[in-house]
Amino acid sequence: MIKIIRKIMLGGLMAGYTLMSGCMEKDYSDDLSASLDGTNAYYPTLGTVEDVDPITIASDTYGTLIPTNPEVFEKSGADSIGQRVFLNVVFQSDPHNPISTAQEVIVLNLYNIPTRAATDLREAEDNDLNRFGNDPVQITGSSISKEHLNIEFNFKGSGNNNIHDFTLILPEGTELDNRGMLLVELRHDAKSDTPTGWYWGVTSFTLKSIPEYQQNNFQGFLIKYNSGADSQAVWEVKKSN
């Protein structure tokens, strides 16, 4: 499940990284102007909390990050090992340093990322996809990180603290094709929410819940979804070599 969040663009990622344009739950423009003096840039990244004493982040993009303002993690309920987060950060030194070196950062804002296992229907007694809903969702980005398939998307909602479900399904009969790609399906259940505007979301799905990921010839995912305009839309994401 994911609580709907309004989308606010905070800047694109560096070249070569496919996921994330940025988001936050409130307007941090004053914080940004106060934090940046025109010479420092801020960088968005997904990551996982790997230690809490001190707070240490395993960034999908920049390696190990050590926030100099760790209190923001406790305030956001993100101070537990294994929690996935989206961060906008300012580096205390050159962000292009070797990623084997831990780097100190100031966290400008963070967003807790829901983490879920994929649902494998290939041996399930009930393989009816309709129980997962089929409301429109528009995939806008994706990446395969060390332990997760990360999917960014837009969807319509009301913004009244309603909860939408997003489920990654391994449908009956799916298997690696001759390119090493696995067909999966992203399902959206709006739970009868009446939409009034567009919202943004991102979810990380655990790779360990997808058996084919461990196979040597695995190359990536073909993600089927209902975009609204096309009920059979397919998004392709490949693993990095």
From TrEMBL:
<protein>
    <submittedName>
        <fullName>NigD-like protein</fullName>
    </submittedName>
</protein>
<dbReference type="Pfam" id="PF17415">
    <property type="entry name" value="NigD_C"/>
</dbReference>
<dbReference type="InterPro" id="IPR000253">
    <property type="entry name" value="FHA_dom"/>
</dbReference>
<dbReference type="InterPro" id="IPR035376">
    <property type="entry name" value="NigD_C"/>
</dbReference>
<dbReference type="InterPro" id="IPR038143">
    <property type="entry name" value="NigD-like_C_dom_sf"/>
</dbReference>
<feature type="domain" description="FHA">
    <location>
        <begin position="122"/>
        <end position="181"/>
    </location>
</feature>
